[in-house]
Amino acid sequence: MDTRHDQLYQQDVHDPYLRHWHAHGNALCPECGVSYRAGRWSWEGLDDAEQAERTLCPACRRIADKAPAGNLTLAGSFVREHSDEICNLLHNTEALEKREHPLERLMTISDEAEGLMVTTTGIHLANRLGHVLEAAFKGHADYSYSDDRSALRVRWERD
Ligand SMILES: [Zn+2]
C-alpha cells in the first residue's frame, strides 16, 4: 500500500465523517461549493472538464446531521456582558480558519442558561477558538478530547 495514503487514512480513521473519503474521486459539495481533489479540500473549485461527484462534504453533512465535532461552553459573567464582542471574535476566527481548512466551520452559537454554547464541524476550529478567547479576553479554558481524538469539548470561563 502507498504509505502516504496509509498515513492519511490513519489520521482520519476515527472520524466517521472523514474516513470514507479516501475512496472518492473528485467531488463538489452542492451546499457550500467546496471541492475535493487528490485527497484535498479547497475553495478553488474544479474545472468544468473535471468529472466530479456532487455530494455533501463532511462539514455540510455534520451540519445536516446536527453532529458537531467541537462543543464549546463559554461561561461566566463576562460572557453575558460582552456577548457581541465574543460573537464577532468567533466569526472572524472562523473566517480565517476555514479559508485554509475548508471543513472547519462554526455550526451554531446559542444563548443558554450557563452561557454561550458554540458548536463546530471540526476539532481544530474548536481548539483555535478556545485559544483565541484566552488570548483576547484572558479567563481560563479547559480542553477535553474524546479517547479517539475525533471530538473536542472546550470550556472557557471568565467572571
Ligand atoms: Zn459542503
UniProtKB/TrEMBL annotation:
Domain of life: Bacteria
Protein name as annotated: ATPase
